[in-house]
Amino acid sequence: MVAAVADAHRREWAFVLAATVRVAADLDLAEECVQGAYAKALTAWEASGIPDRPGAWLTTTARNLAIDAARREATLRRSLPLLVEDPVEASIEPAGAREIPDDRLRLICTCCHPALGVPAKVALTLRLVCGLSTVEVARAFLVSETTMAARITRAKKKIAHARIPYRAPRASELPERIAAVLQVVHLVFTTGHTAPAGGDLVRYDLVERAAHLARMLRALLPGNPDVAGLLALILLSDARRETRQAPDGSLVLLADQDRSGWDRPAIEEGVALVREALRARPPSPYALMAAVAAVHAEAPSWEATDWAEIVSLYDLLVQIWPSPVVRLNRAVAVGFAEGPGAGLEALEPLAEDPQLATYPYLAAARADLWRRRGNPARALLFYEEALVLTDNEVERAFLSRRIAELRA
Fold first, then answer.
1. 307 Cβ neighbours under 8 A, 6+ residues apart
2. In a designed cystine with 93, which of 97, 110, 348, 366 is the match (CB 3.0 to 4.6 A)?
3. Does a structural domain hold residue 252?
């Protein structure tokens, strides 16, 4: 039963919360009622069995809890305008519903209101729409859990105090919010593509949710090159999903993956979208990241990968998005294009970057470069550091194997 409720949490959280927000007084109450509905499911489903439509059961239960809470305080009509203009009309599709037919996207657009700062928009949407824990959201932002918890709380208060309505903007209003919405979808995808923690390498529910939302944005804004680039990035990255783990569940590096198992139709669609996205000047970060993924996808083998082209793409990406993670990825590419010594030299300026102090992939990159350079002692030191910082169990198992090989 616990497994069934956990599965419903992964699959239905966004739908249930988005529907509950329609009748709750505020986001905190909506989230509390949804959590209460999942708690009720643990006992109710044990007694009466798992319902045919778990999401509908959870939504009804959560909405009833929200209505009951409002009635107990006798403030239903006074509090609902915070998120819904009229409680009597709460079940009626809001303005723009036919243009944006998914409650999750309506909730994203509420969380991405212009009154909020971009970090708050993304953090709040990951927490509320995707149901990620505060720890997981903090990991995605490379900040502490305490910092992220405070950021999410401030964002919720801002929505309440500014009386931001729960409604979807029409397609004509989307461009002003599109940057934050795309950032949300991208972080949802990256968090799913390699889960920050737990026993699964991939959270397919998040990957599929991000792909769904990206396709919906593509339908709404078919000429937007940023949307095309993000959808391309998702398709090209996820095209490798069947080859990223061995039959025993162990991690398979890109260099060792069976390329015949990659999803060729997805790659063809992604490459076409990359070409479209790169026509914009300057190209978006998503277009450039998708172009890197396309170079990998089109290479017939690991040895035939055009690493010089990948470094050139990262050079452009660093100019428009100079994040430490982008610079880290560029340094790794330099290590393959020019040798491990050049890669280590490119990594050196990042060693003291506070944003990467607890980022396991920096230590893992340094370890791999030292291993390839023929210095197992230095490699072992950084593999052990990466192991301490890594919470995903599949990645931990891979690092432990590397450490055992070097010690042997």
1. 333, 336, 337
2. 97
3. no
CA-closest candidate to residue 239, choices 219, 256, 218, 258:
258
Q: DSSP for 388-404?
A: HH-EEHHHHHHHHHHHH
Domain count, the chain: 2
Residues 121 and 156 reside in one and the same domain: yes
One domain, residues 79 and 138:
no
> At 110, which helix (H) or strand (E)?
helix 103-111
- For 190-229, the pLDDT digits (tens) are 989 999 888 999 988 889 888 988 998 898 788 899 999 9
Domain boundary among 91, 111, 139: 91
Structural domain including 60 reads 1-91
Q: Are residues 80 and 188 in the same domain?
A: no
pLDDT tens digit sequence for 146-185:
999 998 888 888 887 777 766 666 667 767 778 888 988 9
Which neighbouring-strand residues pair with 198?
392
Alpha-carbon torsion, ordered 51, 53, 57, 63, to 10 deg: 180
Of 62, 91, 120, at which residue does a domain stop? 91
Indicate the pTM of the whole model: 0.76
For residue 22, pLDDT over 90 is answered with: no
